[in-house]
Specification:
Length: 451
């Protein structure tokens, strides 16, 4: 506490008022402790050219000017504060970031109101898929980065080029054998196929010839997932095997933790985590470098039916989405860093597939058997609120598989009604650079290189 004599103040008339003062200081030298240097620097260094944009009315501009140029009492902001000056009522530096966030949120909300997300009224294309296996536990469709869709129809594997619309037969299995899983390599040069009689083959997509036969399983291979040069397979024999397709001895690691068929596999985007779903209703999360020891990172047991649908969130690498079968009907979001359940949504129908929207924060689900009107539907959900945007129900049988185009705009659904339906449900991406530029300019008025 400062003990000051009367002659410390100048002018003396200030002593007669109830004004509160900050001390010490000098009437000729500005007092840095009383000044908002962040605000002053911003006003001095930033371009003050007005941005006339029809999306922001005069009331909003005035509110922004007031925040920048006036204190909380509506008085002009003072850059230099001397001894004897009233204590500044301008918001302190710690409030500047909050102000930035408030304005950013307001602008984003304004943009969201202008760009309303709507489901397409109908599919953009429909293809026949005769003899497709109506089996929940298989995964027989995948869209490669080369824009070619691989789909198994009975004993035959077909490749459909979405650019030229050409169809080619990759192979036809012999006898009573048939494909039960298919997956494109990350570079789209190879197609891996698992069979009902436990064979696992890698095919060259350009020459339509098999290049590898991989051993290790004793029963049907229900699911496949690539991680660079490693091909991971899950089987009815309850094992998960990592195959190095470059090595002569292909099996590099394997685990057997599931107590029933492994029907879902998904590697995270970084390739360090693997999620596996089984018919015993469990989800395991594995670390790549620890799969030889069978020590899993997490085991989630909240589903009450088989877990086939798995999808890693593209916006948050710690979030995994999963979908349960007929007796569960739930979409669950998991935090794999904490090992906790974020939320659970009852969809009222079997969840057969999940696809994240890379352009908007949404997730699409494909459904099968159910007890209400939601069965056989495609449903779009907002993230992270998981509010339902709407549903599509053109399939007359359950949706077996979902796959996404390389550009992330189109999703194809394979139904038990022997049709493939293409949906332009995820686009268009946000490309309004003008709005982004306005946002950046407005927010830059509050940013200083000095923190």
């Amino acid at each position: 506490m400062w003990n000051l004599d009367c002659d410390w103040y100048s002018p003396k008339s200030l002593l007669s008022t109830p004004t509160i003062y900050d001390f010490p200081g000098d009437r000729f030298i500005p007092n840095r402790s009383l000044m908002n240097l962040h605000q002053a620097n911003s006003l001095l260094t930033n371009i003050t050219k007005k941005i006339q944009n029809p999306n922001f009315n005069e009331a909003y501009r005035q509110k922004l000017d007031d925040k920048l140029n006036l204190d909380s009492e509506g008085k002009p902001f003072r850059m230099l504060v001397f001894r004897g000056s009233p204590k500044s009522s301008q918001k302190s530096i710690r409030h500047i970031d909050q102000m930035r966030e408030e304005d950013s949120e307001a602008l984003q909300n304004n943009g969201n109101q202008r760009i309303r997300r709507r489901l397409p009224k109908k599919e953009s294309r429909v293809l026949d898929a005769p003899k497709i296996k109506n089996d929940y536990y298989t995964n027989t469709m995948d869209w490669g980065k080369n824009n070619i869709l691989a789909v198994a129809l009975g004993t035959e594997m077909y490749l459909w080029n979405s650019v030229t619309t050409d169809v080619s037969l990759l192979f036809k299995a012999t006898g009573n054998n048939y494909p039960t899983s298919v997956s494109w390599s990350e570079d789209a040069k190879y197609v891996a196929t698992g069979f009902v009689h436990s064979q696992l083959q890698v095919w060259d997509a350009e020459t339509s010839k098999p290049v590898r036969n991989l051993q290790g399983h004793s029963q049907r291979i229900s699911t496949l997932a690539w991680n660079n040069h490693v091909l991971t397979s899950g089987s009815h024999d309850r094992t998960i095997i990592n195959h190095d397709v470059r090595a002569r001895r292909n099996e590099v690691s394997g685990v057997k933790a599931h107590r029933a068929e492994v029907c879902g596999l998904k590697w995270s985007k970084r390739g360090n985590l693997l999620a596996s779903g089984g018919n015993e209703n469990h989800i395991y999360v594995w670390e790549l470098n620890k799969m030889n020891s069978s020590n899993f990172l997490h085991c989630f047991k909240d589903h009450s039916a088989a877990v086939k649908a798995l999808a890693w969130c593209p916006y948050d690498p710690a979030v995994l989405a999963s979908g349960g079968g007929t007796d569960d009907r739930c979409i669950k979001l998991w935090n794999v860093q904490k090992g906790t359940n974020i939320c659970s949504i009852d969809t009222k129908a079997q969840v057969c597939g999940l696809q994240w929207n890379r352009h908007h924060k949404e997730i699409l689900s494909g459904h099968g058997f159910g007890t209400s009107s939601e069965h056989n539907q495609l449903c779009l959900w907002q993230y992270p609120s998981m509010t339902k945007v709407g549903g599509l129900d053109p399939h007359t049988s359950r949706v077996l598989h979902l796959s996404q185009s390389p550009d992330g705009l189109t999703v194809v659904s394979a139904g038990g009604d022997e049709t493939l339906r293409f949906w332009d449900v995820f686009g268009p991406p946000v490309t309004d650079t003008r709005e982004t530029s306005v946002l950046d300019n407005l927010l830059s008025m509050k940013i200083s290189p000095i923190r």
